[in-house]
Q: What sequence folds into this?
């Protein structure tokens, strides 16, 4: 974007040697647009490579339907694209720095919204391990976070990063052994062994 020709200087405002005319006194050339309008996020999304978007959303689905912003950025989505996906409903903002796809289960979404992740029997069910049916949600919560009253909250280990939305199988089994009645815990372990 180049400015147009330099205007004639009024003799009353003769510039000192080495000075310059302020930008706001220079007429813009016809092809110069300043200030530029804010970006149209919908148009940006249309220009975005669909393969990149689909690959990123597929990665979110494979990890349980919820992901932090860092994962989306690693998969090639910039801030404008993420905002476009939110505006079109392909992503939902759960809390600061965390998003979910529409296919995410309600349990995973609820655990993430309160700052935690699915744990214990709730995580085992998401991993395909049989547990005694229950409607109670179990979540691992970092210190300082508060879980809703109807949720069984397990405290996260100090210093461990909470960068997952579903607790890994090994951790979930260990937590279930401490949380469940003996026979239910044994049934869950047996199901995990059969699954592996």
A:
């Amino acid at each position: 974007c180049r400015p147009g020709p330099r205007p004639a200087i009024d003799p009353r405002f003769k510039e000192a040697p080495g000075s310059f005319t302020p930008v706001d006194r220079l007429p813009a050339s016809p092809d110069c647009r300043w200030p530029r309008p804010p970006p149209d996020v919908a148009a940006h999304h249309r220009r975005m490579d669909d393969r990149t978007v689909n690959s990123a959303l597929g990665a979110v689905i494979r990890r349980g339907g919820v992901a932090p912003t860092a994962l989306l950025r690693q998969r090639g989505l910039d801030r404008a694209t993420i905002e476009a996906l939110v505006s079109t409903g392909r992503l939902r903002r759960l809390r600061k720095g965390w998003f979910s796809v529409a296919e995410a289960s309600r349990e995973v979404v609820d655990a993430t919204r309160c700052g935690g992740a699915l744990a214990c029997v709730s995580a085992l069910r998401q991993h395909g391990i049989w547990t005694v049916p229950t409607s109670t949600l179990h979540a691992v919560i970092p210190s300082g976070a508060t879980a809703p009253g109807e949720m069984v909250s397990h405290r996260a280990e100090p210093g461990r990063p909470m960068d997952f939305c579903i607790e890994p199988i090994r951790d979930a089994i260990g937590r279930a052994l401490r949380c469940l009645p003996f026979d239910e815990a044994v049934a869950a372990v047996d199901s995990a062994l059969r699954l592996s």
In short: The longest helix spans residues 182-195. The helical segments are 41-47, 50-62, 69-74, 79-87, 106-113, 120-126, 169-179, 182-195. The chain has eight helices and six strands.
